[in-house]
Amino acid sequence: MYFFIILSLVLCYMTQMQNILLISLVTPELMYLGYTLSGIGLLIVFLKKIPIKYGYELFSIGALLIWYTQWQPIFKDDSPIFFVFSLYFVFLATFIELNLQGQKITVDQITREKMNIIVTRSQFKPWTIMLGVLISVALYEHYLLYPVMMTLLMIRFALFRYLKQCDN
Question: Which domain holds residue 117?
Fold first, then answer.
């Protein structure tokens, strides 16, 4: 999720410094690009033809673009929502990437079976969480729902990466 981290950092910096380029980010074209990237990421995760980590990356970038382009006109310019949530996403994604990068993990069989049960349950499928993220972007009055859904998606990504490293 390196590109997601970079994009979140750029958005965080630009909102904190009140950069003039922020006005150009609120365009329908960028929102459609976000929907396209999210749709491609959702398809990658659902079809499992391409490595799933790319699906998570594309979906997260697309959701971030959709979130900013739709919510920025609603909230005031001095609202800390875009800075705080972007910084939160940076810390969470960086924590996941650094803790699960290239480590050899040994897990006992019972723990692996329990984790696989969690992964195979329908409410924890990544595409259901991704649909929840897209729905949460549309709910402006529930502004904490989007970061909660993105957190669930990142936890699901971390579980996916963890189990993949356990298998290696």
Answer: 2-167
CA dihedral over 106, 129, 151, 59, signed as positive or negative: positive
Rounded Cα distance between 135 and 146, Å, is 9
- What total of structural domains would you count in the chain? 1
pLDDT tens readout for residues 65-102 = 999 999 888 887 667 888 899 999 999 999 988 887 76
**CA 2, CA 162: separation in Å to the nearest integer?**
17
19 DSSP 8-state letter: -
Tokens of 124: 């924890």
Rounded to 5 degrees, φ, ψ at 10 are -65, -45
Residues 123/65, Cβ–Cβ less than 8 Å: no
List pLDDT tens digits, range 6-60: 999 998 888 888 777 777 778 899 999 999 999 999 999 988 888 888 999 999 9
Residue with tokens 């189990």: 163
